[in-house]
Amino acid sequence: MLQGTNVNEQSSNSPQPQVCEHSAGTLVDLGDRMHSVKSEQASQLPAGMTFFGQFIDHDFTRNSASDKLANPVPGSHTGTNMVTPALDLSSVYNAGGLNDQLGIDLQTGKFLLTQVEGESSWQDNSFDLPRVAEGMEAGKALIPDFRNDSSLLIAQLHVQFLRLHNMVVDHHLSQHPAMHNNPNRLFELAKTQVTACYRRMVRTDFLWRVLHKPIYQAFFEQPQPYAFLGMDGPVFYAGETLPNELTAAAFRFGHSVVKQAYQINDEARLSLMELFQWTGGHNLKSQHLPANLVVDWHSMLDLTQLGRVQMALAASPAMSIELPMGDWPANRLAIRNLVRGQSMSLPSGQSVTRALCHKSSRLQSIIGEYGPVETNPWVQIKSSSDNTPELLLNGLLASSDIATNSPLWYYLLCEAHSASRNYSKLLGPVASYIVAECFYHLLNTSTDEEITNGPIHDDPLSDISTLSEMIKLTQSNPRKAS
Q1: pLDDT of 2-35, one tens digit each?
Q2: 266-278 pLDDT, tens per residue?
Q3: Burial of 196 per CB tally in 10 Å (0-12, 13-18, 19+)
Q4: H helices of 126-271, where?
Q5: Which domains does the chain possess?
Q6: Gene Ontology terms, cellular component aspect (predicted)?
Q7: I want to staple 113 with a disulfide (CB 3.0 to 4.6 A). Which of 75, 85, 126, 388 is the partner?
């Protein structure tokens, strides 16, 4: 919930955000309607950044509770965050050091990787996650967070971070051969430098691409963002736990920008359902990953100027992802997100906007520049035979006040849909503020002194600040001699 309540109490006229509450049937109907919307508008965000966003999300949030679709009572979601609320690569390193249960070679301090199967032109075919080789758990990924093996693309991105770690270990061994006898030190040094590189990429690449430009500039180009905005402190971020407005709404925009299929290399184009199948829980239980399914990141990121890269969809209230488990309505992600938001007592989008505008005249001018968010936009419905546009909330307004008391997640997607043409960014100003404020504190707070103050050894990653630069390094792989 908004952490600004105490500050707001300084003025009796301060608006207090109210919990947004609707019946379970209304949320299901809205989720179904979002599921039915056709979305083909491309953004200027490379498709690979969608999965980097998912990777980042897994780094700082994992909830212990499941969603109860039947009765989404505000406050009923009692789960706790099972990972550290920090950008510390916990999904890669967990909280510990060397651990052979996490696919780490105790003799070298490097991550083990699995060879892919079949003919390839590469000298090094280790392009899959470390996995259990046999037995009842065959195929299970030996990584701290099972969600990073939930689809082929997120698993392949995780592999790139393992390869980056191993390259850093090799670098320090080449510079300091005596460190061969201290694999624990090598592991910790690589962990520190990879994590510092990751945090740079989050700040200067990911956030720069997705946040509304004036909001990004306020938080990441000004030395004192709150003073610049005329505010006396954070509204959402409280330090101990991340606000639900971030984890259940503002940072869940990625679900709306996912495409239904991806060209993962020159040979293979996979649907979302096929991407879900090439994981340790499905096809990889009984076989290695085929070499022709290794992701060529040239198709997903702007590694060159050749124009091969696929773009993510523009953020919008269209959300047609179906999960590969369960039946309707539990398998529709739009419905699950709406129910989770209400069970976590999220306020409406309108009340959050009013509270932010009350905080700062400069913030109000940024938000107000785009006028009221259109919460009932004209859309195209996938089942329509003639592509005639319809109002998204057609049939819902007679029995609800969704348009004026909008679930925060839905409201922020509508905001992005309205503001996406401005500055060519993905998010609108309210969503951007929530994300920027929280990430500003996450990036300036660390329990690891080496991450905050910089590594004590030479850092081979010091010049890397974008995901594309990292992938150019980790995907470089000499070809076999012909």
Answers
A1: 554 333 333 446 666 789 999 999 999 999 999 9
A2: 999 999 999 999 9
A3: buried
A4: 152-175, 183-201, 207-210, 213-220, 225-229, 244-247
A5: 5-474 (1.10.640.10)
A6: extracellular region
A7: 126
